[in-house]
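Changelog-adjacent note: as of this version, every example in the card shows the full chain rather than a window. The one below runs 869 residues end to end.
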Amino acid sequence: MPGENLTRDEARERAALLSVDGYEVSLDLRSALGEHSGEGPRTFRSVTTVRFRCAEPGASSFADLIAPGVTAVSLNGRDLDPGQVFDGSRILLEDLAEENELLVDAQCAYSRTGEGMHRFVDPEDGEVYLYTQYEPADSRRVFANFEQPDLKAPYRFEVRAPEGWTVWSNGAGELTDGVWRFAETKPISTYITCVVAGPYHYVTDSYERVFEDGTRLEIPLGAMCRKGLAPHFDADDVFLVTKQGLDFFHDHFDYPYPFGKYDQAFVPEYNLGAMENPGMVTFREEFIFRGKVTRASYEGRANVVLHEMAHMWFGDLVTMEWWDDLWLKESFADFMGAFSLVGATRFTDGWITFANRRKAWAYRADQLPSTHPITADIRDLQDAKLNFDGITYAKGASVLKQLVAYVGQDAFLEGARRYFKRHAYGNTRLGDLLSALEETSGRDMGAWSRSWLQTAGVNSLTPQVLLNADGRIDELAVVQEAAAVPDQPTPSAGHPELRPHRVAVGLYRRTEAGTLERYAQAETDVDGPRTVVAELAGADAPELVLVNDDDLTYCKTRFDETSLVTLREHLGSLTDPLARALCWSALWNMTRDALLPAGEFTELVLRFAGRESDIGVLQMLHAWAESATVHYTAPERREQAGRRLADGASAELRAAEAGSEHQLAWARFFARTADAPADFELLTSLLDGTETLPGLEVDQELRWAFLEPLAAHGAADEKRLDEELARDDTASGKRHHVRCLAARPSAAVKAQGWAQVVESDALSNALVEATIAGFAQPSQRELLAPYAEKYFAAIERVWTERSIQIAMVVVKGLFPSLQDARATLDATDAWLTSHADAAPALRRLVLESRDDLARALRGQECDRAAAGH
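Full-length structure tokens:
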């Protein structure tokens, strides 16, 4: 539809013209139940009244609505012809008065893509569940509005729902005469309004806080999930983290939580991790664990709970003006999630996870051809959709961690407090926050902003150590290299920056006990191409130099040759878990940069991962080792490398402490690497109970994890998978079943999976993802070969015909990365050349996949050279 992709220029023009006084939205969701008759999508009635002012009476503008049909439109009492003013995505508003009232009566469609009003039918009991998801611009699929973040307004919602249902929204609600009516919200943006409705299992609690001035704050707490998940729902732990987070943010922000109640809904088929709708946060229901998981999973959930809570201030109370400044909410929430996790919960090692997992996401994104400054150039809504990425989240958070080291924690938090009070319920740009930080820190934030927020790319820091005749350090320097554009040998005008870094440089050596420990450290400011760390002159010669010790800055860490030799032999002896995680991260970045052969990286994992104490780091090492084998290992060595991984995983599984989370992690990794009859026999016997491993509970989730490799290698047929579904006839079981069915090694199976995803829109978002996950099996490269050509023939049509969420999943998930890298690279380049006019967001996704492939090819060449082939 021509007006669906709102541009920044259109949004600015409309914001200059209009201001919104309030919305009244009435939804009738009773049509969610019963059989759907007739052609077209299942719909619900949506009636919206908007009161707004116009700065130029007589001017024209438009309202946003994506709906199958509009019954009536009235502007200032004038009935307008829907056929004349509504084009499918916009409602034309002409001859506006100074004060206006718009009424729109529409038939809006329920969604199966996770966008707008998502409708889910639980296969376990037939119950129907609804929830909304809007970011960045899908509230217009549910009610007519002005869909841009800077036209904030208060909202009043009322909802008619099937009898026996409960309905929740941002404000507190009550059922009167068959209608759920909700308290008016504070002024908020369209994309964070929310409705959740259905027979959800609901648990309540409350939070109380007495402030220093004697005022008391009481916040009603609620948490909900599908009835089928209720036996697994550990709401007490969710409430514990919620209360800890509220205490932490009240302690540090000096601004009471402003949105009344605090509900948290764990909902099915959710596209995101979570969404910060004030008073009604939504999460993907996979955060409710049906089986045994590691501590890392609980830590991950707690981090997300706190991330969304931080948004109540950074994003909801104060909102960016346009999506260019998305970092003003997402970077801060990502940083505050880790900051509060460490400061308020039992997960005191959260910075290790941040360094190992979140930064890995950022480093990858920041080396893609689509890399962008943290403050991005967002031309339209399609750009905005794609910019919820590792730069906006994890790089932004890393930069804020650096900023705290730069200005000091007290100045940083005081700047945040002034920012909240100054801009409460308003919209801001970059300069608004920087001015507050300048006031509190006394530093010029302009230079920092230009270096860190307004340029792209990641720097590399490498130590240079010169020893004197006595074997002590004569000079230790840190060499900084600028980020180069991918596939170009030198930096371009967009990526030349040598940034100021606040770093800690750590010196490590082995002790008499054989451990590798830090014996000296110096904090310093690195600026320019080479910085001498004068404080370390005269220190004993180190065996390992870690130039980003304590992970203060955002950079790729490199090693001098002595440090590399030490890590090759003694990485497992490094006692500090954060330092160890940083070394692993640096080694992985070297592997991705074709500076370390994939075979050497996987051997390091096999040699030392069994000694890794941090379970989150261990699970990340498993993922990296698997990726190194599948993508970065020379094709002629791939089978041997895969066998080494499977054998190593099997050995570690049997050696792990009975019942430990490490045993569980190795069991899952073994299943993912299994590739031989003996492996399949062990998995089958563990499933059947004919063999057991002491302490390993093969619960339902682990059963599906074991079944996927069996299905992918032809050791579990459709009948066996159907039997497992009968055992686990739930929504979760259905997703696992679909994934395993698509994983089977059959040309007919692959053809069916392709047709279901590419040629049909019958599957829901969750089942599209499950089908794609099963379809692309590394062990089935020959079976997948015919789909490379089909992919490039189909993606532009998919982008045009499907919702952007589904199109993104298909374009990313089906890219033929498992085929011959050189041939696929050539085919990708040919498509990019012949489709120069394709949608920029589509081209971005293809360019990113191309870069991953080119990087893999360089890694394969490095691995081949190291092996002497």
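Structural remarks: Residues 487-494 have pLDDT under 50 and may be disordered.
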